[in-house]
Design a protein that fits this description.
The protein has about 150 residues and is an alpha+beta fold. It contains eight helices and seven strands, in the order E-E-E-E-H-H-E-E-H-H-H-H-E-H-H. Strand 1 and strand 2 form a beta hairpin.
Length: about 150
């Protein structure tokens, strides 16, 4: 795991953040070059992962973390948890599933699950559709488990 810091202060990873009045997206550290980091005075420390990847997270944690990451709005997260409304970005992923039975199963899961499993194939599909690596999906689950 990498810990990023600036002027001795840790910077959040896997969530949008602001530094010196500049807004950065949740995945900026994954996209930044060594030069980008040095330009901003950001240092990187490699440390072993201390938190295991949770096998599952609650629906509240899943949708809240999506909102924290900026993938969906806070209103979308609330609607998903309150009444099972699938947020548009996730519905677009489901709609792209060719097999009607798999698409129905994905709709049922996203609208009715109270627990999201890390090992479920839909988890990997949603991550891939968002351009996330397996490590980034793990980080998402770790972060979600903390909210």
């Amino acid at each position: 795991m990498k810990i990023f810091s600036c002027n001795g202060q840790p910077l959040p990873s896997g969530v949008p953040f602001e530094l010196d009045g500049q807004a950065y997206p949740w995945n900026w550290f994954d996209l930044a070059s060594v030069e980008d980091l040095a330009e901003r005075g950001i240092t990187v420390q490699e440390v072993p992962d201390v938190l295991p990847v949770p096998a599952s997270i609650s629906d509240r944690q899943f949708f809240q973390q999506l909102a924290i990451n900026g993938t969906i709005s806070q209103d979308d997260a609330l609607a998903a948890v309150k009444v099972g409304t699938i947020p548009a970005p996730l519905q677009a992923i489901v709609n792209a599933i060719q097999d009607a039975e798999q698409r129905f199963a994905a709709n049922m899961l996203l609208s009715g699950a109270t627990v999201f499993e890390r090992a479920h194939p839909l988890t990997a599909a949603i991550g891939a559709a968002q351009g996330m690596t397996s490590d980034q999906v793990d980080a998402f689950f770790r972060a979600a488990a903390q909210v």
